[in-house]
Amino acid sequence: DTVKPSVVSRLPVTQSRTQCPRLLCIDDDRAIIHALQLRLSSHAVEVPQATNGVDGIQLALTQQPDVILTDWRMNRCSGADVLSCLRHKRQTQHTPVIVISGVLQPGLKYEALNLGADSFYAKPLSFHDLVAELVSRLSLRSLSMLPRPRIAQRD
């Protein structure tokens, strides 16, 4: 996981905490939740958390986050169950859902997208890719503003 500080530093800082975008993180891996909170909190992105799908659904319905990031394999309620429930609730049917999974089996990405996921990423999660996704989903700033790879100039 290569963190590009220049990308993160370009996320806008919102003046009021009530205007902060919310990324609900549903994952039974507390290290992922903690890493996201640390990396995004200083950039005015709130990261409410749930360590299982049941609690995640409850938080999604009560807090109405701007984006939901959910693991696929969890105890008590899988990512598939989370997606199915969220897509059938009026409050969350249009909320972007990003699925992450450490298990890559044939057809898993297709299954997640077919159930209503907006995106699918394999673990380990690239923070740079997630920031680009958040920029897109939250309309924080134009994707064209993300740093581009440097190309060596010929003399």
Q: What is the element layout, followed by pairings?
A:
Layout: H1 5-9, E1 23-26, H2 30-41, E2 49-50, H3 53-63, E3 67-71, H4 79-87, E4 97-101, H5 108-114, E5 119-122, H6 127-138
Quick recap of the structure?
This protein is of the alpha/beta class. Helix content is about 35%, strand content about 15%.
Please count the beta strands (DSSP E, at least 2 residues each): 5
Q: What is the H-and-E element order?
A: HEHEHEHEHEH
Work out the radius of gyration.
16 Å
What is the terminal-to-terminal distance?
A: 34 Å
Model description:
The chain is an alpha/beta fold. It has 6 helices and 5 strands. The chain has helices at residues 5-9, 30-41, 53-63, 79-87, 108-114, 127-138; strands spanning 23-26, 49-50, 67-71, 97-101, 119-122. Helix 2 links the parallel strand 1 (23-26) and strand 2. Helix 3 (53-63) packs parallel to helix 4 (79-87).
